[in-house]
Amino acid sequence: MRVQEVIRRPLITEKSTALRDDRNIVAFEVDRRANKIEIQRAVEIQFNVKVAEVRVANMHGKTRRQGRTSGRQPDWKKAYVRLAAGEKSIEFFEGV
């Protein structure tokens, strides 16, 4: 899998903002097929930082209704990436 395909988008929520400020952890939506090693490599190459730890969580898609018709959003994978001690924060999250 190519490095550019691993990270889908950054997750900017209250929880991820608190983790980034307190513990130097950033959250991303990643490709469902990606493993921890691929995620670590993608973050290190794309953002030029050193990664200390990667945790992943498989998220289940929500069921949505419109009238009497119901459908499901797709399942997706979330990655919590802890940057190494002394690493600068990723500039992408600073502008938010």
CATH architecture: 2-Layer Sandwich
The biggest beta sheet reads: 4 strands, antiparallel
CATH topology heading:
Alpha-Beta Plaits
Distance N to C terminus: 29 Å
Oligomeric nature of the chains: single chain
CATH superfamily: RRM (RNA recognition motif) domain
Q: Which strands sit side by side, in order, in the main sheet?
A: 1-2-6-3
CATH domain class name: Alpha Beta
Shape: globular
Number of domains: 1
Overall pLDDT level: 93
Helix-strand sequence: HEHEHEEEEH
- Helical fraction equals 25-40%
* Annotation, overall tally of beta strands: 6
Number of continuous helical runs: 4
Poorly predicted regions are none
Describe the structure.
By secondary structure, the protein is of the alpha+beta class. The chain has one domain (3-62, 73-86): Alpha-Beta Plaits, CATH 3.30.70.330. It is built from 4 helices and 6 strands, in the order H-E-H-E-H-E-E-E-E-H. It has helices at 3-6, 14-23, 36-47, 91-94, and strands at 7-10, 25-30, 51-59, 63-66, 69-72, 76-83. It has a 4-stranded antiparallel β-sheet with strand order 1-2-6-3. Strands 4-5 form a two-stranded antiparallel ribbon. The longest helix has 12 residues, at 36-47. The protein is globular.
Topology:
Elements: H1 3-6, E1 7-10, H2 14-23, E2 25-30, H3 36-47, E3 51-59, E4 63-66, E5 69-72, E6 76-83, H4 91-94
Antiparallel strand pairs: 1-2, 2-6, 3-6, 4-5
Task: Explain briefly what this protein structure is.
This protein is α+β, with helices and mostly antiparallel strands and 96 residues long.
Features:
four-stranded antiparallel β-sheet; 96 residues; alpha+beta; single chain; 36% strand; globular; Alpha-Beta Plaits
